[in-house]
Design brief:
By secondary structure, the protein is mainly α. Strands 1-2-3 form a three-stranded antiparallel β-sheet. Strand 2 and strand 3 form a beta hairpin. The protein is elongated and about 80 Å long. The two termini are about 35 Å apart.
């Protein structure tokens, strides 16, 4: 299967010739090139990254490969990703003020992800023993419903007590909370908003900090579009 971005590489390289300052920022920040970069050109781009050719003030020319993390899934992702990377590079080089998040929001996916995680734990790792009934549900129905879970546990030998699961979850969410705190120090304005993000990350974990990063990226793109 052909790379959807590589097939447009020639057009994109030609288009980016009109943005030499952006390419220099990519080289210095993402390519980690030290020294005075005079010029930079994009010589190729695909879904995994872009190849940049640059020239230093000393006269030395070289090439660097900047990877996309994560890789692009389609051509339509090229522009927003390059804009976001431009803002991140300019931020890191002190050319652009870091975006500020001033409001708190809970992602729409939080309830669904939390519900799925809880169901998966209680179903696969802590199912009730056979011949158990619940409310007025017949034993045969309960056994039939949980038979895949018992088969899974018998085949894998996996099982987690509620206390062990809570300990693991607290450790994971604790690390995620520290990461959220680091994001808040850079991008969130206001003690109440910061406390809300940190507290909710301790409870819900992954959905909170990924949504915060998404909002920061969106703010970066907006700031670049205003400048342009």
């Amino acid at each position: 299967m052909s790379d959807p971005v590589a097939s447009k590489s020639g057009f994109l390289c030609m288009y980016m010739k009109n943005h030499p300052d952006t390419l220099v920022a990519y080289v210095k920040y993402f390519g980690k090139v030290e020294g005075n970069v005079l010029t930079a050109e994009m010589s190729g781009i695909d879904s995994k990254g872009m190849t940049l050719v640059y020239k230093l003030k000393s006269g030395q020319s070289n090439t660097t490969r900047v990877l996309f993390e994560p890789p692009l899934s389609g051509y339509e992702e090229v522009k927003p990703r390059l804009l976001s990377m431009k803002a991140e590079a300019q931020e890191g080089l002190g050319m652009l003020k870091a975006p500020q998040i001033t409001t708190f929001q809970i992602p729409r996916t939080t309830a669904a992800i939390t519900g799925i995680a809880l169901f998966a734990y209680f179903y696969f790792f802590s199912p009730p023993p056979p011949d158990t009934t619940f409310l007025s549900i017949p034993v045969a129905t309960m056994d039939a419903f949980f038979s895949p879970a018992h088969a899974f546990r018998n085949a894998t030998g996996l099982g987690l007590s509620f206390r062990t699961a809570c300990t693991i979850l607290c450790a994971i969410h604790g690390a995620e909370t520290l990461y959220t705190w680091s994001l808040c120090r850079q991008y969130v304005k206001g003690a109440i908003v910061t406390a809300a993000y940190v507290g909710c990350t301790m409870i819900f974990g992954y959905p909170m900090w990924t949504d915060l990063k998404r909002r920061v990226q969106q703010k970066r793109i907006e700031s670049v579009m205003k400048v342009e």
